[in-house]
Predict the 3D structure of the following.
Amino acid sequence: MKVLVACEYSGKVRDAFRDKGHDAWSCDLLPTDVEGQHIQGSVLDILDQGWDLMIAHPPCTHLAVSGARWFKDKRKEQQEALDFVKALLDAPIDRIALENPVSIISSKIRKPDQIVQPWQHGHGETKATCLWLKNLPKLEPTNIVEGRKARVHMMPPSKDRWKLRSETYTGIAKAMADQWG
Ligand SMILES: C[S@@+](CC[C@H](N)C(=O)[O-])C[C@H]1O[C@@H](n2cnc3c(N)ncnc32)[C@H](O)[C@@H]1O
């Protein structure tokens, strides 16, 4: 399958699909952190290039409910972020999964199809991740473990904090490749 992993610099989902033999590409405005098939640029320019499946991780900075206290000061940024999400969900691709934290996508576009947690996929941590799905089954838990640490919320300030907070968990990436690949 030809798989597009939109808004991914970490290569986590891309490489999980490549490990299963798929022709998977990541795309981000940033270069990839891990060498591999990567398109650096706007994903909006390549949505019509014959992909069978797209997994998209659009920025949540102006959408996440955790930032609600700033919402009134960033209406324009919020609308642009929502327009970007809509463009991804409306892409001419048969199967689409779009992930974001609990966000205003739910009230402004539609409710997510499911919410997954890292502890359902082998990481003893909690971080609610919403999935909006098109022509894909819900992701089944692969390895439910006991820990419920809120690791990403407790990270100390650093220049890479946003990156460390936004990287996809390898257990969830593998579940996507195993179940949707
Ligand atoms: C929340 S991060 C997702 C990180 C991802 N989970 C990973 O493991 O690499 C959102 C990413 O969207 C990228 N982005 C924003 N606008 C984009 C665009 N038009 N085309 C491609 N990537 C974009 C940003 O550069 C950022 O890296």
User: Anything to note?
Assistant: The mean pLDDT is 94.
